[in-house]
Structures are given as C-alpha cells and as structure tokens.
C-alpha cells in the first residue's frame, strides 16, 4: 500500500509541476490575445456602441427588442475586437516603427501572425453566429459590414481618407439595427449612418494627429496628413455638419427638449475637444480622441430621456 501511496504522491507532484509551468504561460498568452483585441482599451467599443444604441432606440421608438439589444451589444464587442486583430496583423511590419504602436503583441512578437489569424477567424465565426439570429434584411447588411471591417486595414495604404471607410464600418450598425427592428431601412436609418460617419472622421482625425509625424515618415495615409495645417479648421467644419445632422435626426424622429438639450451639450464638448487639440500636441489630440465617446453617450441619454418622458402609445 505504501508504494502505491508514494506513486500517487509523485504523480500528483508531477501534475502540479506541469500546471505550475504551463498555467502562467497560458495566462500570459491569453493576456496577449486580450491586448490584441484591445480588451484593455475599450474606447473603440464605446465609439462603435453609441451609434448602434442611437439606432436601436430610434428604430424601436424607445422600446427596442430585448433580444436584438443583446445581439447588437455582443456584436459590437466581437466586431471591434475582430477589426483590431486584423488591423494589427496587416500593420505588423509598420507598428514597430510607430511610437504609439510598437508595444502591440504582434509588433513585439508576443503573438505569432498565425495565432492572430486564428483568433480573427474565431471572432468572425462568432459574428456569423450572431448575424444568423437576425432577419434576412439585417443579414444582408451584415455581409456589407463585414466587408467594410476587412477592407479598412488595407485602405489606409492606398487612399488619403481611410477615416471615411472606418466611419462607414463603425456606422453600418445603424441601418442593420433598423432592418433588424423594423424590417426596413428608412431615411432616418441613413441619417444616423451618415452622422456616425462624420463623427468617426472627427475623432479618428484627432487620433491620427497623434501619429502624424510617424505616418508621414513611413508613408501611411490619413486625414491628419491630408488636412495638414488646416486640420483643426476642417474638424470644426465637420463638427458643425454633425450638429446639423443631429438636429435633422431630431426633426425626422420628432424628438423633443431632452434630445435637443443633449445636442447642445455635445456642441459644447466639441468646442472643448478643439481646445484640447489647439497646439496639435500628441497628448492633447489623444485626449480629444478619448473624450469623444462622451458625445455619443450624451446623445444616447437625450434619446432615451425623450422616449422615457414621451412614451409612444
């Protein structure tokens, strides 16, 4: 009996040793995958989520379908993560030469390219599963959204306005939400989409201003490079255009005081963001980018409050 007990003890020790050796490596690699998906940097998820919620609440007139809400919120996280993984895979030979991106997992070699593609495929399969729960109109739009997501990382090498493609990808959830909720895509759906596109060009130009010197040096195209010295002037013009689009959304959806009050707050926030970026210093531009998601949140609160106090009967 004693040898058996000794053998069992040795086996247990070997198992513990194996777990002790491999568990930290697995945990470390999972953290690297999380960084590749930007789980530690949720700003992109918020920027994608807010226009999606605008559209869901407008399409559902304040009472969107609960199942659709869950599908779209999960879908936002999955698609943003998939986009980040693909973006880093495409940029893996550029990122080591850009100050802001040189510590990304693919740039440092912490994650192999094959691992990144496998992760992207897994996320893509989850997205397909979510899309399969939607009606045919929304599924068709989901295919277009997937094409935009895949196209974006490649576009910035060939055109000077990749931010518009990013905006289309980020805003595409709007017509999808309307199609899923109502079975169609009315003018209001495309108004929300257009607003989301303009907004993406605004905040992603702030973001691109952080990397402008590096991008010029290595030949990456962006609106920050294209706009040059008139960047803040163009951003201000786009902000005015976005405000007009938001007012038009309010008019078309017959929204009231709470919504227009939220638009006024958003206008003040836009002016503040311009002030933050006034010297074109990377830190200020990055703060302007990070704080943009609060505009989306404020607009959503305005929409939600309107329907809370003016329920559709």
Can you walk me through this structure?
This protein is mainly alpha-helical and 313 residues long. It is 78% helix and 0% strand. The protein has helices at residues 2-36, 43-59, 66-90, 105-108, 113-131, 136-155, 162-171, 173-182, 187-210, 212-218, 223-227, 231-252, 257-276, 282-290, 293-309. α2 (43-59) packs antiparallel against α3 and α12 packs antiparallel against α13. The longest helix has 35 residues, at 2-36. It is globular and about 80 Å long.
Secondary-structure class: mainly alpha
N to C succession of SSEs: HHHHHHHHHHHHHHH
* Rounded Rg: 23 Å
Choose one word for the global shape.
globular
The number of helices is: 15
Major β-sheet annotation? none
Number of strands: 0
Beta-strand residue fraction: under 5%
The poorly predicted ranges are: none
Cα-to-Cα separation, first versus last residue: 78 Å
Question: Helical content, roughly?
Answer: over 70%
Note the quaternary state here.
Answer: single chain
Q: Please state the average pLDDT score.
A: 90
What is the gist of this entry?
The protein is built from 15 helices and no strands.
